[in-house]
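Blackboard transcription, Thursday session:
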Amino acid sequence: MKTVIRVLIIIVIFILLFVLLNMLLQPKYAETLVEGSMISQYYTEPKDHEVIFIGDCEVYANFSPMVMYEEQGIKAYVRGSSQQLIWQSYQILKETLKYEKPKVVVFNVNSMRYDKNSPEVSEAYNRLTIDKMKWSQEKIDIIKDSMTEDETFLSYVFPVLRYHSRYDKLTSEDFEYLFKRKNNTYNGFLINKNIKGVTSLPTQRRLADYNFSEECYGYLDKITNLCKENDIKLVLIKAPSLYPYWYDEYDEQIKKYAEEHDIDYYNLKNNVEEIGIDYSQDTYDGGLHLNLTGATKLSKYFANILKTNYELTDYRGDAIYEKKLEEYKQAIQ
Amino acid sequence: MNKKVLIVIAIIVVIAVVVAVYVATQNSGDKTNPEAQNVTGEVQDEGFKVSYLGVDVTPGTPFNRNDIPEEGTYSEIPSCAFEGTDNVATFSHAEITSAQVNGVETVYSVYFLDTEIKTEEGVAISDDRAKVIEAYGENFEENGNKITYTKGNVELSFLIENDIVTSIEYVLVVE
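(Written on the board underneath:)
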């Protein structure tokens, strides 16, 4: 009996060491590459949002839920991540609906341009979206849908298989955030106060094919159907940006899809003047993403659209959100 | 069971972990580092060559925009989340995109902007498809309107619309 206990103890110790090793070597996304922490921050939030944004960097950089709350009393959350591809947005939406049922889901259509063979699909971005997701059927499916040829499912289960080479790159961040997390966003919005105005842009390239892939349409259908099944209003948007180019041919396809499926579509690139965006001041990277001042303008503008068209509740005065707003205002000073 | 059995079990567990790590990481490289995924090729002797105003700008070669005897406009295009940037230099007839590779600014792509510039084999925008085939042969990959030739670690693509070349681009093959 003693021997059995000893064996069990040894096995438990090995398992614990293995788990600890996984935790230590996995990037923490707390102080660096903070985009990798955004998906998981949602789990600790109160789940009473009436609006959920899904999509790539064009949502988490450009839409500030706290501005929307202050302006219109909207409770919104941005479940965005870097280069979030449409098959990932679908799974993230599915996961979100396990926690709550918003009135409106806003999907940024920029990712329609990338199919699974696009060079923009990479493990680095996959990791930023997937690594910190809680284990669920959606996480299993998102891994299967996203893995590039060189990736293995097992490396998502046991991160040490991927990150073993970080052993000599560990920093104080890896130890400080071994057992804790750092929230870097405000309801999913990542603040960037830097200013880098537009000076020049690359030439708009001609493309061999402007048509979105059947694969992407398939996932857009899934998002549409998921919203319909749950009685959620789906709203498609294209966030304002100057690059990468959003071709007219792209826009026509989304317009057509929206009309055919009775979905509202707002190409906010067309409203830049009305919104008041000044690309010499309101962008932190030369026109790809808005900075804090640009995102504030856009969020005020879009909050008005949401409030006017989708019968949202005015939650102003909510104790939790008032506290959040106070923290947000301190952060943007 | 005795002490020996315990030691054997411990050794097996350690070996299993080590083997699992080794097997799973074979050929993995550092794919979680976007810079490592970006431009990693080296110029091979047999690859396509391209020059602009007499300066060699073959993808994979070091690039100094000041070497080009012409003023250009410049933009930096960052990726969504990482520190790396593509540097885009736009000149009168071509746009050259470069990036830092192992600390060296390296040509990633060359995009022709008008009919004033020709490939080394004499093809320019506005030529017809037959001229492309005559210059480069039938060994190409076709994707919609685009045909792509690969030589060494450089891809040369022609966009052909209504039998006319409307776009020419050299791109470094990335691993």
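Lecturer's comment: The interface with chain A takes residues 1-2, 5-6, 9-10, 13-14, 17, 20-21, 24-25, 27-28, 30-34, 37, 73-78, 80-82, 88, 90, 95, 97, 111, 113, 143-146, 159, 166-167, 169, 174 of chain B (CB under 8 Å).
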